[in-house]
Amino acid sequence: MLGALAPSAPAQPxxxxxxxxxxxxxxxxxxxxGARRRLSGxxxxxxxxxxxxxxxxxxxxxxxxxxxxxxxxxxxxxxGLNLLLTSSPEQRARGYVTATRGNHGQSLAYACARFGSxxxxxxxRGNDPAKNRAMRELGAELLxxxxxxxxxxxxxxxxxxxxxxxLVHPGATQALVAGVGTWALELLEQxxxxxxxxxxxxxxGSCVAGTAIAxxxxxxxxQVIGVQSAAxxxxxxxxxxxxxxxxxxxxxxxxxxAVGRVVAETxxxxxxxxxxxxxxxxxxxxxxxxxxAETLGQLAEGAGAxxxxxxxxxxxxxxxxxxAVLLSGGNVDPRRLLTVLTGEDRERG
Length: 349
Known about the structure:
Helix content is 44%, strand content 14%. It is α/β, with parallel strands linked by helices. The protein has two domains: 4-74 and 175-341, Rossmann fold (3-Layer(aba) Sandwich); 77-172, Rossmann fold (3-Layer(aba) Sandwich). Keywords: Lyase, Pyridoxal phosphate.
């Protein structure tokens, strides 16, 4: 891995910029700053790296934030820990229930184990077996039901009511969004200079919402661009104004982004602050996974590679500038990874 950029004095001014666009949005920027303070003693900064070969492939100077190096292999641990840190003793005693495709569940399980709370996770049938195993190994109770995330969520809602546990939505829970937004503050402190754009994957929208609030406050010139799988475009279609009714997801390498319902809370932030949304196909996701392995020697799951695929798709817009992408997670089924790396799914032509 080349080009690790050591944290130094912040390259961006550490001042809060008053912006009317942030008024009334949740979480507030102050809540993200609070999450940063709470997490500082628990999670060391993740590396920000640059590789000339990767930038050449993408077509623009590209920095990569390695959130796949977090304790659970994904950025969402920031949100899980912030949730437990801001919960009351009574809430921790009641335990937590959520639906997940993997990384959110691992995040909550990790945080619950740290605080001695019960954690029940509902996953859809056919979920990534490696992620299921990882959640169980972190001490979570795993229940399998439903055909997709949305069906699993409805089951989680019923289970939480039955048990009197705290129900945690991965996008609508403000403490989660504030926690994951802290990665963007860290990014600005590590960047060697201004960033023209930051690309982030979008599932339920927690990451792009937290990122957009943090960047609008600290680096308002930086564009925030969300990336979704073309097989699961619900949030993109809603952001473009077509429909809030949702869109059933199809099978995709980016299973962590495969949601069909629009999350109103994160969509409100996206409509106010996100500059663009990009859909990438399966070939682009597979190519991005290979590029990470070939250049940085990093494992990326499909959702984790989405931001890089989006940056490549829009590279001509930022040529001559500098962008950053979030490698959000590396929790991938080894069999699926082998298929991608050996090129068995290589794009036609």
